[in-house]
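so i finally got all the pieces together for this one. its three components total, 272 residues if u count the protein bits. some of the lines might not be protein, just check the labels. i wanna see the whole assembly predicted at once instead of chain by chain like last time, that was a mess tbh
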Amino acid sequence: MPELPEVETTRAGLAPHLIGRCVRAVRLHRADLRFPIAPELASVLPGLMIADVRRRAKYLLLDTAQGSVLLHLGMSGSLRVLNPAAPLKRHDHIEIDLDSGLSLRLHDPRRFGCCLWQAPQSVHPLLQKLGPEPFDLSFNADYLYRLSRGRSAAVKTFLMDQQSVVGVGNIYAAEALFAAGIDPRRAAGAVSRARYAKLCAAVRMILGDAISQGGTTLRDFLNPSGSPGYFAQRLSVYGREGKSCVTPGCRSTIAQVTLGQRASFFCPSCQR
DNA sequence: CTCTTAACCTGGACGC
DNA sequence: TGCGTCCAGGTTAAGA
């Protein structure tokens, strides 16, 4: 489910409720997520103050003086801040009670997400092989151009590889390639430097717009307050197979193919 | 190295 | 109503 805009929306929604608060208690209802929930959640976290809430790629970090809670939402995860008296829902796996009287809950039906622990002054192994953040200066046309030389994989697959750039998933890869006018099936190594410049700008624009809309809610994404995101209304190609292209004057219909096992949408006329 | 594929898991939509 | 099939916003392990 969540790509960078949804994770960033979650981070922004959590921060005012978590920063400066102390953890009173932790309740684990189900430990078998993608990885087992880190034992430190129960053994170390209670009593600690959350000093910051950060995002790296699609991961969230809750920093304390003794280490950080490292969260990934997988395909179906979401975090809510609510009254601990609110009834527990099916697939609510973790509850973290705060000294504000509110509680943080991790809900994840498919359990592709994880909740791990990062020791102080260290970088968790899962974060070590990640590419640049899309809003960093190091993510630019030269970088993508050089990295892609000799690559035969589809440019969409290359863009979704978290070692190329982080945060771009299936929805935003489709939208960014449409905005850049690049055929998602094209080999990454056959895309020019000039077109990678367009792609960089498109990724930033699409992600930025999506963040400002609170992310995309297709089925079940909710921010920590329980509200959906509104970027779904702005999607140009994702999920629009058979419908007409939104480009003024274009008379083509949106096509769908499978790339890297993922449904992929594009306009055969606007994207080359 | 790079690339492709299967697998992890649940729920909702759809066809019969 | 029920049952089978397919699909879904992510990631990794294994094999070619």
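The radius of gyration of chain A is 20 Å.
Chain A has a mean pLDDT of 97.
anyway lmk what u think
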